[in-house]
Amino acid sequence: MIELRPYDSLGGANHGWLDAKHHFAFAGYHDAARMGWGALRVWNDDTIQANTGFPPHSHADMEIITYVRDGAISHQDNLGNRGRTEAGDVQVMSAGSGIQHAEYNLEAQTTRIFQIWIIPDQRGGAPTWGAKPFPKGDRAGRFVVLASGKGDEDTLPIRADARVLGLTLAAGESAEYVFGDNRYGYLVPAKGVVEVDGVRVQARDGAAIRDQASIRVTALEDAELVLVDTAP
Question: What does the pLDDT read at residue 183?
């Protein structure tokens, strides 16, 4: 089953400095039918104006993955971590027992990110943060694991039975992803238009996937996409 969730159907709010679209219920957007997808709880499509950002705030018991689509995001937290994550790269924060952080666009241009929250397998634990570059050329034509709680090498670790994957395709190319048994998938093109088992998915649409052994993604134009594979 693949359920298309068009970009125009998403919730959200424009705060001026932040234009946020929500694939799932979040903040002031309430939708009982979109409270999450498996262990995936939040997928926000955020456009952040230059020299603005999220001031210090706290989280606990959540795996928070930031995929930078354009520009860069600068992180700082109460553990002393600081970092700048550029377009195409990923940062992960395991909030654990509690962390306070800020995320700023210190660039002269607009920054666009996907902010993905996954419910951890267990509550508590020491909070952590990390970031990693993932050159787009390394994932051309194939799914590459960006963050994982399943022991994948050369990825950012998360504390959930889940994977976050990236893929770039040139127009006309295809790639396949095989799910394990009883898995949930959620796929969003950052750029371009693709078909997922014949379902047309445009940039920033969501495709909610369930009860599928595998999917085949074909690019109708040059495309960059992110897929989350989680437990129910």
Answer: 98
